[in-house]
Amino acid sequence: MLARDAQETSIDWVARARALAPDIEAAGDRNEAERRIVPDIIAKLHQAGLFHMLLPASFCGGAADLVDFNQVIETVAAADASTAWCLAQAVASTQAAGFLDQKVAHEIFGRPGHSVAWGPPSGAKALVVDGGYRVSGRWRFASGSEHCAWMGGHCAVIERDGKPRLDPQGRPVMRTMLFRKGEVTFHDTWHVIGLRATRSSDYEVRDLLVPDAYSTWRDSIPDRRDNGPLYNIQLLTLYGIGFSGVAVGLARASLTAFMTLAATKKPSGGLGSNVLLRDNAVIQSGVAKATGRLNGARSYLLEMLDEVWQASLSKGELTLDQRARLRVAMTGAMEEARRVVDFAYQAAGTNAIFVGGPFERRFRDMHTVTAQGQAHLSNFEAAGQALFGTEPAQRL
Q1: Mind spelling out the 3-state secondary structure of 25-66?
Q2: Domain boundaries, position 262
Q3: What are φ and ψ of residue 372, in 5° steps?
Q4: Nearest in space to 86 (alpha carbons), one of 142, 27, 19, 28
Q5: Tens digit of pLDDT for each residue in 274-295?
Q6: Do residues 125 and 187 share a domain?
Q7: What is the pLDDT of residues 176-197, one digit of tens each?
């Protein structure tokens, strides 16, 4: 049984997600056809408080912990991966509220129905002017931008009088600029094999004035204004926590769907047999192995999430070893989840290839999930360096 902090709220976040799951799953085809999460599902997620579940109570948030966050995303992903991905991205991004002036943070994150979308850093440039910045740039992968009120742009170049700002180590200073969605030009570039409804398209601004109070940088100690345990967790780690939940939810749903199919399907064609798939020794062994891999990876992930949350609560920081083991757990869970989805897809035979069936979209979605940086095998290299006591260049 995982230990839980006594200060946590009594809200059962997973139960809230589970109650919405039938509606989320039923909307999957509409999401796919419209290439967005349909508005009625977004409204229900907001009504349940899921977009603001990590925010502290001072922001009218749920003050949920990392285990709840991961398990909510897993539950939603078993119903529809695109919905889960957008929710994970938006929930993790609320961490920025602790690094902004409180009034600005409430305006952006604390209002009902509000969320933020942004993509990874690009070559965007921000020129320092009186009171703020003039920003120009184009970014990719704005997951959930269809339903967000605010956008963010991570700027890799901050210039004043033609000279880039550098930190004490001589590295370029980076900032995230926050601006209203109406100030953005979108480019419909999201034509992909999976997670189609996330609408993770490109967006840009040109010579946009952004007041200084509407800028920050993730995990920046000078910017930090809240001492809660959430803000001891790196933003990139929060993305990994959410996206690993997407992968595990997809795998759990795929394996369940295959076991349901195996209870009634008999092989056909030249390999026809009167034996049900569930009575085939190869299938039985494959299901057992897939179950062990998935449950083992999931259990280790939940164990590490609980450990790092308790460390954040009690000590206010994570050790290098904890960060390494958490990264192993997150990336490992995504890798094992992919293997389980691949097994279910292959074992289902021709049943897996039809649009609208329980396997085809999940297969596409999973392989899109694992294309993202949180699932890259390079994460294991960085974690291995940390386990040997060396701080890796790649952030954990």
Answers
A1: HHCHHHHHHHCCCCHHHHHHHHHCCHHHCCCCHHHCCCCCCH
A2: 233-387
A3: -80, 155
A4: 142
A5: 889 999 999 999 999 999 999 9
A6: yes
A7: 999 999 999 999 999 999 999 9
